């Protein structure tokens, strides 16, 4: 590894981001089909790979980049939005999941605490504002009750939540255009100048 100075180890990462500029009403890019060393990806166990692939491709707009039938499916949307679905091939995985669920139910009955539904954690996926409504509608058609309506949040985004067939909560997040007056007001309220 080479010795890097602070100047050479930082750069304007907007140059490599596929996320469209919300101020320019940018069009979303097409799914990226190139091959690259993935800097990060999520791996999800799936009890039904066909159902999972259908949901991720038809609902969330991913493409099937590579498959090992019955074993693994590599999905991608934009560059750096990679998901690996891994089939649960043996009954041991299913029985372990059932046992874990039963143990959680016993504990919640004893303590009065309800365990979180689905997988621990969540995944946020950048989308274009022009895509979010159609994605929610498609996911809802494929898996009724899996979505929440889009809403504006404080950090200048439009967001909606989707629960995938694997139990993962995905937040679709679309950046909204900046309002220079609101930015200035925020900076002034926090002791800074614009």
From TrEMBL:
Q: Cross-referenced InterPro entries, in alphabetical order?
A: Glyas_Bleomycin-R_OHBP_Dase
What this protein is called in its record is Glycosyltransferase
Which SUPFAM superfamilies does the record associate with it? Answer: Glyoxalase/Bleomycin resistance protein/Dihydroxybiphenyl dioxygenase
Q: Where is the composition biased (Low complexity)?
A: 96-105
In which residue ranges is the amino acid composition biased (Polar residues)? 1-12
Q: Which residues form a coiled coil?
A: none
Organism's domain of life? Bacteria
Give positions of region: Disordered.
Answer: 1-32, 96-117
